[in-house]
Amino acid sequence: MVEVMHDTLGKFADLYGSYWYYIGTAAVGLLVLVLFYRKLTGPKLPPGPFAWPVIGNIPHMGTQPHISLLNLSKKYGPLMYMQLGSVPTIVIQSPEMAKEVLRTQDHIWASRPLTIVGEVFFYDRQDLLFAPIGPLFKLLRRTCVNSLFTPKRIQQFQAVRKEMITLFIQKLLQECKGGKPATVDNMLKETNFNNISKILYGKSYYGLKTKNVDGSLNAREFHEIPELWAKVAGGVIVGDYLPFLRPLDIGGCEALLKTLREEFNVFLTSVIEEHRQRVPAPGTEDFVDVLLTLPADDQGHRLTEIQIKSFLQDLTLGGIDTTTTGIFWPLLQLMRHPEHRKKVQEELDVVVGRDRLVDESDLPRLPYLRATIKEAFRVPTAVPFLAPRESLEACKIAGYDIPKGTRLIVNAYAIHNSPEFWLEPEKFDPDRFLDPKNPVKHDEYKYIPFGGGRRMCPGMDSATLFVESFLARLLHCCDLSLPEGMIPQDVDSGASFGVTLAPTTSLRVIATPRLTLKVYKDAGIAL
């Protein structure tokens, strides 16, 4: 009896096992046919790596996405298609492709995608950075060009820049007395923070040794916000790429953004109320004064208080993070390459001399200093990815079909560090920007530290002027050396990915005066 049952069950299993085998084979065959049909009839997409179900190509990004994508371009080329979760994305990694999307098709690629940072932190994209193309973007962009970053307005804040740089040099020299090394990272952050906040808000909010410091609780909390924001915005927010997981708020990013937005709101509310109670003298207005008194445009559009707050958040966060790294990396490269540091100082001595301190009016006559800063903007590229864009309509790039709503990543790091576009790209060589036989032209799009097209950074001239002034004064005033036992090759140039490339280790230097005591006294630098 047992043997009969065993034989019966065996035949049953064989029958239905073969049945499911044929069903499975048919299903796989049908899937292959569907995929093949889609490939024949669907859009001709750019090449790219295999995308996993659900998560797509997110694993390909790694912990250093700018380097991962550069390596992938060696296999798939400068125009690459990726599926980041549910987000179709193209990656641009050559000057030719950058020129195509940033200039030729800028009208298609000038808008921004909806992201959690833009929605939550910037009041549903009521700012300039995350605003989609439309009336608000045009109004804010026009405000930058016509009211905030005009040559006259930039010149108005020359005294602020000079004060902040002077305080930095004084503090650095005092900390280095007796040959002691000083860590410059936090000092740079404090200096740039105070420079930005005095231009925007009329006050310094970082440290207790600057003039006109607001020591309130709100102010002390205020200078912690940019660092926390950069950590969130520079990381992967899961809900942006896998929307069905957004309610879980994996990592707590959305909750933190809401907290930071409310803290920033409390601060900005008090600042705006304070500004409404005063009437500044002509020529002394800060950015808040300007924004509160802007007239309506030709269409009757006027900035609301929420839009002013969002715009100020843009200007604060963008100015602090990018300009601080914009000073740090040139300084680090000059400590790694003392021969270039010497050439910058020799240029300063020839053009300016040692009887007075270098001034902003001297900068146009300091080409090697400017070339050094440009080269430090190229390598390592402080802002590795341009801010993401999104296509407003379907288009073609290099013969490939790009659907409407595709995300765009421009890997500026790859463009700046590829041997295909730069001779010995890993080499720090300011002279490449001074070569008359092979000039670096902006319209070639091989050098894009500030982006391109209508989304180019509106504060480019102001930020560049501060970096140039800072490094010119520092190198004119101070001889810099490394702590005892260190050689230039010991200076760590490692960086971690984020909105900007952040240094992995601190920079320590020893500064000593190199000018006469009278020059320091005249400049208000107490030794």
Automatic annotation (TrEMBL):
Xref: InterPro entries: Cyt_P450, Cyt_P450_CS, Cyt_P450_E_grp-I, Cyt_P450_sf
Family to which this protein belongs: Belongs to the cytochrome P450 family.
One of the protein's GO biological processes: secondary metabolite biosynthetic process
One annotated GO molecular function: metal ion binding
Protein name: Cytochrome P450
Transmembrane segments: 20-37
Keyword set, alphabetical order: Heme, Iron, Membrane, Metal-binding, Monooxygenase, Oxidoreductase, Transmembrane, Transmembrane helix
UniProt source species: Riccia sorocarpa
Residues engaged in binding heme: 457
Lineage of origin: Eukaryota, Viridiplantae, Streptophyta, Embryophyta, Marchantiophyta
CC cofactor: heme
SUPFAM superfamilies (UniProt xref): Cytochrome P450
Highest rank taxon of the organism: Eukaryota
NAD listed as a keyword: no
